[in-house]
Amino acid sequence: MTVLVHLIVTLGMLYVIPAGLRLIDPVALRGTARIWPLLAAPGAVCLWLPRGAMATVLAALYAAATLSLVARAAVRLLRTVRSPAAGAGPLAPAEAAVLTALLAPSVAGTALVAERAGYRLFGFDLDVLALTVPHFHFAGFTAALVAGLVCRATRAVPGSGALARWAAYSVPGGTLLVLLGYFVDDWAELAGAVVLTGGMWAVALLTWRDVRPGARDRTTGALLATSAAALVATMLLALWWALGEATGLVHPTLTWMAATHGLGNALGFALCSLLAWRRLTLDRTETTP
């Protein structure tokens, strides 16, 4: 499981975050996205070192980079408060999802520092801290970002606006509830998993029904279809695991979840989604007079 989790996290650090930053704001975040692989390299390297001082220092360098995204989120929030665009205030669903995406990597970075130092932050087992890192790169950053992108793309589609807004709120909300569940109990975590799964299934439905038909080529359409299908399967696994943890019913092990839920979310959902939305963004840029 360790090697697989490290590979997934490395993908999140070196590709997913910079690709997502370009989708959030290709102008203001272009410079950050361009240098992000260099900023993330210490974090990626520390994953493969034994726990100790060197791994902790490298993890801290990555955590510092994630804090720069928190600063970006604060600047963005202040800008929307002072000069809110139509339908894009700080509490607008798509904007709330984007702000969540910018904040999520800092949670992953903090957990990474503690895990590499061998420190049980808030009393959590080191395995839990290790799994928090990919969770907040993918469920935190990517899922919230894609929910926001889907909301923006479908809010004007008849019959889809309410569902799109709900998805953009429930994905960040569900992620927060899962995080809070870590501190409360397994039932609170299950509640978060239910909310998050509902939001992600809404994203999958909107992607399949409203976004995919607008793709200009088969490759983009196939990437969108794959991402939607992956969400249905991987979030069902997440529900199964959370229900089993809360009730004691038979459920997958963490190793099995990493190999199915984790890998499916990383490759099937996150990677395919970002590649598809990158292509959609380029298509719109090329067709804008």
Automatic annotation (TrEMBL):
Keywords: Membrane, Transmembrane, Transmembrane helix
Residues spanning the membrane: 6-24, 56-75, 96-114, 134-154, 166-184, 190-208, 220-242, 254-277
Identification of the protein by name: YndJ family transporter
Organism of provenance: Streptomyces vinaceus
Pfam family, one: YndJ
Superkingdom to which the source organism belongs: Bacteria
